[in-house]
Write a structure and sequence with these properties.
Length: about 80
């Protein structure tokens, strides 16, 4: 039978602190013997648009497409 979880005000504040301001990610609460022992926060950063380097000028786009068609499939390809 498992022990009931012991949560005091201090742990509630710690959990709220980790969750506040989190846009993308997760918070993991580790419990041992019915007591919270650890809180892990993993935050993700999402980018909606590609970076400046990923937006190649049209002349470079043609060159990369030519290289793509000539490659054997082992090279890094620019996907647009």
């Amino acid at each position: 039978m498992s022990k009931p979880l012991e949560v005091d005000q201090q742990w509630l504040e710690r959990i709220a602190e980790q969750v506040s301001g989190l846009h993308y990610g997760h918070v993991t609460i580790t419990v041992h013997d019915g007591r919270i022992v650890q809180i892990d926060r993993t935050e993700r950063t999402r980018y909606d648009s590609p970076s400046q380097k990923q937006q190649a000028p049209s002349g470079l786009q043609q060159q990369s497409k030519q290289r793509e068609s000539q490659s054997s499939g082992d090279a890094l390809r620019i996907v647009q």
